[in-house]
């Protein structure tokens, strides 16, 4: 795990995909690669009403990643300070080995540049003290970014909201 | 030093440095990003004529509206570059050629770069290989008017530049061009079409040789009304009167010239332009622009002939006389023409001894013609050795086959004769000197080595000069040392609106060079008549869109040539004036086309080799077939190695800047091809989830050496995860 995490409050997500768009703008990507993605699951029956789940999925920044050893050119690395896994675009040759190795297809193929891209939690932005692009773009504040230890706190806040409103958000 | 390298790339670097600096306002960001995109279009050859204006407009926006102040300087620099390097930008946009070979997609193939007329050689070779002869011919006619004639007599500088020569033998480009014409000539699939008339101006072309025909052809294609004024009874210039018909059959030349006529070009034969008012009169007759292509028709006889002995003539007089006689045109304009002398004797040389002095193609033509006219003995006297002969090697070999005697290292000194006729030629022996500073070995006469060779006819094929007497009354057209002076950029003479090209400008050269001059002059004429500046692009070939290569096996690519000129030479025709060379067979032509390395696609930049070796570590590729001939080692043709080492990851195709390497998944196999030739064919693994093949087994094994790989394709991976987590059908 990396020291940071992006946590998605599914009850707030409206599947507007602003996070996807902002991510691509920030990375200057064309059509095709989606370093983060909203996956729609459902709809399922919730208390007699249909309910769709919108799952935000980017990279888990695994503690023991498979993509990093798969790269023959050491373009994809894990940072020592916070465990963020990123692709050095100058080293990437475009062999797609990382894409094959990742069980969640976090590295995505950018056909225009002929390189792999993946979520790196917007390294330059977090190093400059900003939030990742997707988090800033979320209009409903469904995404929160912070140290991974804060995630339980975020979950508690949501549970409290559920109690107050009397709704089962899930 | 400032001006080295590609100017488009240079401009882009300048803008990129500013953009990566990251201190700019929104106007600068938008405009400079737009400028970068436009510059990319130019370097990829996708630009449209207005691209430069669009860049100027964007730079102008920055100058007017920039709020940060930092961008103004860069924008001014961009505009400055556009003005300063206008020519380079023009060549990129108009010709899709990067003269500095920095824009990968715009690098010319060596053969096309070597061709004076810049024919799109790799493309027409590919078309001939596919059997699409009509299209191939159309493509060649984009750049030259007489493909059938060139396919027979061209000196093919393209074959000297061919990279395949480093492997085994250059592609027989010229033979393939001839085949394309012959196939269409047998059944004219495309009738000669008349060109649309778009402009009212009339063009006069003086001289109907290769240069004049090319100028007329390209002006007619542009939509002008063209009239050719030809002094001789038949158009074609040296192709008709210099080149014998066993090399270039008259019906081929006449057919091609008829095609030009069919376009609407009027050819007035027996109409020399001369005297005081030649060019001025043409002007008065309403010709808006004039092209001069008079050629080089004056032979030179280097030795004195004080007694006026008969039987001494220059090469071009000899050849043109014979051609006139043989081709049944005997309505010459001028009865006192010099060509009259010796005509009866020249037409029949039975039992005579003929000496031809010289070592060029004219000499070889003359000596082979003499044999065909029945000469008992035909010999070539040349002052250097066989290696230094400027004539085409094939021609020299053919002459040897026909029992021409060669006297090398021999210089003529004096013509001897009695009763007004030549009897023999006195010669000197030479020996080659030590190489001088330029590395050339000059022939030095050996003292007292004089000897005599019997001869009834001596032909001096030792150089030709343009006959520029027709310009006597027109001082505005400057001449210098018996050449018409032109502006090399535009082929315009010192008289506005009068252009010139061909042998009269360059001195005796080749047909293809003359056609190239005519083509260039036509482009400049068009610009002159439309009141524009001629584009810098007229000095460069046009790189056309590459024909997708045929899929062939590596073995087919590495085949040796099946075209052997010795097999095409018909010894039984050596005494006739019928065409002596056969066309190549379709099968051999296809084999030849498969041998072509397609240098219009693969520019041998080596990026694929780099990534495969340095970055992936598979080390499957090696550009072994672009060898160095100087080292004398036979370069390894490395077509079989990819098969063992290639893991089918496709990195080479991703990094290929021109798209020469392709990756294709068909029928459960992944095929990697280099310019159509199969490099490797590897079995693929299918996704457990959706059943689609997604990677090669070798690639998966390669990754598994380091880590373990899932068994589903990347597309399915995320969805599979959410299915595991939520247990849901996925939208």
Automatic annotation (TrEMBL), chain A:
InterPro entries: 4Fe4S_Fe-S-bd, 4Fe4S_Fe_S_CS, ET_IronSulfur_Cluster-Binding. Pfam families: Fer4_11, Fer4_4. Keywords: 4Fe-4S, Electron transport, Iron, Iron-sulfur, Metal-binding, Repeat, Transport. Residues 4-34, 48-81, 83-112 form the 4Fe-4S ferredoxin-type domain. One of its GO terms (molecular function) is 4 iron, 4 sulfur cluster binding. This is Fe-S-cluster-containing dehydrogenase component.
Automatic annotation (TrEMBL), chain B:
GO terms for molecular function: 4 iron, 4 sulfur cluster binding; metal ion binding; oxidoreductase activity. Signal peptide: none annotated. Pfam families: Fer4 (PF00037), Fer4_20 (PF14691), NADH_4Fe-4S (PF10589), Pyr_redox_2 (PF07992). Keywords: Coiled coil, Iron, Iron-sulfur, Metal-binding. This is Putative selenate reductase YgfK subunit. Residues 635-666 form the 4Fe-4S ferredoxin-type domain. PROSITE patterns: 4FE4S_FER_1, 4FE4S_FER_2. Residues 375-402 form a coiled coil.
């Amino acid at each position: 795990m990396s020291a940071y995490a992006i946590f998605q409050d599914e009850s707030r997500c409206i599947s507007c995909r602003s996070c996807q768009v902002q991510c691509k703008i920030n990375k200057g990507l064309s059509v095709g690669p989606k370093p983060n993605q909203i996956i729609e699951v459902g709809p399922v029956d919730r208390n007699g009403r249909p309910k769709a789940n919108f799952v935000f999925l980017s990279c888990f920044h695994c503690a023991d990643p498979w993509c990093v050893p798969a790269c023959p050119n050491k373009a994809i690395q894990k940072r020592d300070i916070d465990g963020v896994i990123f692709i050095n675009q100058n080293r990437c040759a475009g062999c797609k080995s990382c894409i094959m190795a990742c069980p969640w297809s976090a590295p995505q193929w950018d056909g225009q540049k002929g390189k792999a891209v993946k979520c790196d939690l917007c390294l330059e932005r977090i190093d400059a003290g900003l939030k990742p692009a997707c988090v800033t773009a979320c209009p409903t504040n469904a995404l929160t970014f912070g140290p991974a230890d804060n995630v339980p706190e975020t979950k508690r806040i949501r549970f409290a909201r559920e109690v107050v409103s009397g709704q089962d958000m899930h | 030093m400032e001006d080295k390298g590609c100017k488009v790339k240079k401009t882009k670097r300048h803008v990129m440095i500013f953009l990566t600096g990251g201190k700019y306002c929104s106007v600068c960001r938008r405009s400079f990003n737009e400028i970068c995109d436009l510059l990319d279009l130019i370097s990829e050859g996708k630009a449209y004529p207005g691209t430069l204006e669009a860049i100027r407009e964007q730079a102008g926006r920055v100058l007017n509206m920039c709020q940060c102040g930092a961008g103004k300087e860069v924008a001014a620099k961009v505009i400055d570059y556009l003005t300063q390097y206008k020519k380079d930008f023009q060549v990129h946009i108009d010709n899709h050629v990067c003269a500095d070979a920095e824009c990968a997609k715009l690098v010319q193939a060596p053969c096309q770069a070597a061709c004076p007329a810049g024919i799109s050689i790799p493309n027409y070779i590919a078309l001939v290989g596919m059997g699409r002869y009509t299209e191939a011919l159309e493509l060649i006619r984009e750049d030259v008017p007489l493909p059938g004639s060139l396919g027979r007599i061209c000196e093919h500088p393209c074959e000297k530049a061919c990279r395949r020569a480093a492997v085994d033998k250059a592609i027989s480009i010229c033979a393939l061009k001839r085949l394309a014409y012959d196939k269409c000539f047998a059944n004219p699939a495309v009738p000669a079409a008349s060109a649309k008339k778009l402009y009212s101006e009339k063009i006069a072309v003086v001289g109907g040789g290769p240069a004049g025909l090319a100028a007329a052809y390209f002006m007619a294609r542009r939509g002008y009304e063209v009239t050719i004024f030809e002094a001789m009874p038949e158009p074609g210039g040296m192709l008709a009167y210099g080149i014998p018909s066993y090399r270039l059959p008259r019906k081929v030349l006449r057919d091609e010239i008829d095609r030009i006529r069919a376009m609407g070009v009027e050819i007035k034969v027996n109409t020399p332009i001369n005297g005081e008012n030649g060019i001025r009169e043409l002007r008065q007759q309403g010709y808006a622009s004039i092209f001069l292509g008079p050629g080089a028709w004056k032979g030179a006889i280097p030795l004195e002939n004080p007694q006026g002995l008969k039987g001494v003539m220059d090469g071009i007089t000899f050849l043109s006389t014979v051609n006139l006689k043989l081709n049944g045109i005997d309505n010459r304009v001028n009865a006192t023409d010099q060509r009259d002398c010796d005509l009866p004797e020249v037409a029949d040389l039975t039992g005579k001894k003929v000496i031809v002095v010289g070592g060029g193609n004219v000499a070889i033509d003359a000596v082979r013609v003499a044999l065909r006219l029945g000469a008992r003995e035909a010999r070539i006297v040349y002052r250097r050795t066989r290696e230094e002969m400027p004539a085409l090697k094939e021609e020299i070999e053919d002459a040897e086959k026909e029992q021409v005697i060669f006297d090398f290292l021999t210089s003529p000194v004096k013509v001897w004769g009695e009763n007004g006729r030549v009897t023999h030629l006195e010669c000197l022996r030479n020996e080659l000197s030590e190489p001088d500073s330029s590395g050339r070995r000059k022939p030095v006469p050996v003292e007292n080595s004089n000897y005599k060779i019997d001869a009834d006819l001596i032909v001096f094929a030792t150089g030709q000069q343009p006959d520029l007497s027709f310009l006597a009354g027109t001082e505005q057209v400057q001449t210098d040392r018996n050449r018409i002076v032109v502006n090399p950029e535009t082929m315009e003479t010192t008289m506005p609106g009068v252009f010139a090209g061909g042998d009269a400008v360059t001195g005796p050269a080749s047909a293809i060079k003359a056609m190239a001059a005519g083509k260039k002059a036509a482009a400049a004429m068009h610009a002159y008549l439309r009141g524009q500046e001629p584009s810098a692009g007229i000095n460069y070939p046009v790189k056309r869109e590459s024909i997708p290569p045929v899929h062939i096996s590596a073995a087919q690519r590495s085949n040796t040539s099946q075209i052997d000129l010795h097999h095409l030479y018909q010894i039984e025709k050596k005494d006739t004036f019928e065409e002596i060379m056969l066309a190549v067979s379709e099968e051999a032509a296809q084999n030849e086309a498969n041998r072509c390395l397609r240098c219009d696609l693969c520019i041998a930049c080596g990026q694929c080799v780099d990534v495969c070796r340095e970055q992936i570590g598979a080390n499957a590729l090696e550009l072994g077939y672009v060898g160095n001939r100087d080292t004398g080692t036979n370069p390894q043709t490395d077509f079989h190695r990819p098969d063992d080492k290639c893991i089918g990851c496709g990195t080479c195709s991703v990094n290929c800047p021109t798209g020469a390497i392709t990756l294709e998944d068909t029928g459960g196999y992944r095929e990697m091809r280099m310019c159509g030739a199969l490099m490797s064919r590897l079995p693929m693994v299918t996704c457990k989830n959706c059943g689609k093949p997604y990677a090669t087994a070798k690639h998966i094994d390669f990754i598994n050496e380091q880590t373990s790989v899932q068994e589903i394709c990347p597309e399915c991976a995320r969805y599979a995860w959410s299915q595991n987590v939520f247990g849901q059908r996925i939208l």
